Each structure stands twice: as C-alpha cells, then as structure tokens.
UniProtKB/TrEMBL annotation:
Protein name, entry field: DUF1616 domain-containing protein
InterPro entries, sorted: DUF1616, UCP018671
Top-rank taxon: Archaea
Positions of the DUF1616 domain: 14-290
Residues passing through the membrane, by range: 12-31, 37-57, 69-87, 99-116, 153-174
Amino acid sequence: MAGNQKFPSDLLFVVGLVILTDIFVLTPALNESFIRTVLGLPMILFLPGYSLVSLLFPTKNTLEGIERAALSVGTSVAIVPLMGLVLNNTSFGIREIPLLVSLSVLIVLVCAAAYVRRKQFPEEKAFEISFKASARNMLIEIMGKPESTTEKALRVIMAVSILALAGSIAYVALLPHEQEPFTEFYILGSDGTAENYTTEYVQGESGTVIIGIVNHEHSTVDYTMDVRLENKSLPLPETLKHIQLEDNMTLEKPLEITPTVKGNNMELQFLLFNETEKNVPYRDLHLWINVAGEA
C-alpha cells in the first residue's frame, strides 16, 4: 500500500535550485554575479535529466546512485537541445529568458509528477536522497581505512579527481574570460525585422533596408562599407561609407537601394571592410533581387 510521504527532499532541493536560478538570472542586481553561472550549469546539465529520471525510476532498487547521476547528465544533454529546437520554431526563438522559463516549468512539472509516482509506493521502497547520509557515506568511502595498497591508491585518485573537477568548475565560473573579438553585421527589412526584405524593385525606384553593425572587437574600429549590385558599386551616404564605432557600440541606419539596371535573380551584396584589410571583406551579406523595367 502506498505511503503518505512528505514531498521528497531531493525533489524539493531541485525545485528550490530552479527558483534560485530564476531569481539570479531575472533580477537585474544579481544577474551579473558569478553565482548566476554556478547555478546555470546544473540548470542545463543536470536538473532536467534528474527530474525525468526521478519520474521514470521512482523506487530505490531500480538504479544505483552513480547510474542515476550519470543518466541524469546524459538525459539533460538530450533534453536541452530538443527544447531549443522547439523554441526555434516559435516566435520566442532560442533566447535566454524563453529557454530559462521553459526549463523551469518543465523541471517543476516533472518533479511534481515524480512525487505523485513515488507516493504510489511504500515509503521504504520509494526513492529519496538523504543529503546528510549521502555526504557521510561519501566521506567514509573516500577517507575510510583501505583494505589494500591498490584500494588506497584508487581512493587517492578519486579524491584528487573530485578536487580537480571542483577546481575546474570554480575557475570557469569565477574568472572572467575575454570573448574572442568579432563584429556583428546584419540587414533588416524596412519594418526592423529579419524578414520582409524588399526583393522586387522597379528600375530607378528605391527600396529600404536597415544596416546593422555591432563592434565587439575590444577597441574602436574604423569600418568601410560597399554595396554592390551584380558586382557594381551603388551610391552610399557618407555616414555609411566610413563608420567609426567604439567597442560594444551599435550602428543601425536605414539605407535606400536604387537599382539602375534591370534583371532577375541579381545579387545585391553588402560588404563590410575593417581597418586592417581593405581588399577582402571582413563580413559580407547578400540578397537576391528582381528589377523590372521602368513603369
């Protein structure tokens, strides 16, 4: 007969960790803290899988602790990309907040379902982690008296491995790592979205695109831009021919395109050059356009 257990401490810990992660990511005063990174790692690499494994294996005798942990990591690695794929096919896209909310809702709901499943079993059979007992057993395993020289060596290796892993995680989480320098270069439609580009023109008449440049080069950069139709340069305003941007600055400006020749499936190129290379484009984009004869 099923017992009337209280909410399991391991599932309660998972839900609490999810809520804490949400607070550190969504609160402006906290989301620059290294704690956000420390909390974000298990949110992606462990908690989704652990909640699902808890639902699928609700009893103690189905999985050993190490198997449950390994399966939790592997399942998380499978769940998160699938969730990203789903979000990518919605209006939300793969962005931080939609992914965080989706993961949080999934984990909490699956933990609730896992609790319901565990309630169907007697308390002595339902799986639950006692953190105090787990820590004590781990300490005994690592520090207990070895039975042989080989066992002693294995325990030393285990202890060193655990310390190395903890140190690596702390290094990644605590020390700032400078991002590789790069420049974002993009074009938007006249409505400011990455769609609805003008691709049908009439010779001599104009259409508008929005040019976007974001400098992440860690220094001020002088850019030059060239727009070519069928490899012939089109006139540009001076503000877009020569552009100086400080680090982390963004430029977005509308640009009127006026084709002077007619044709179908013509390549309209947007070429961005940096100050170190004047002949080879640093970034390039293109649209394929049709230009009808003058009305």
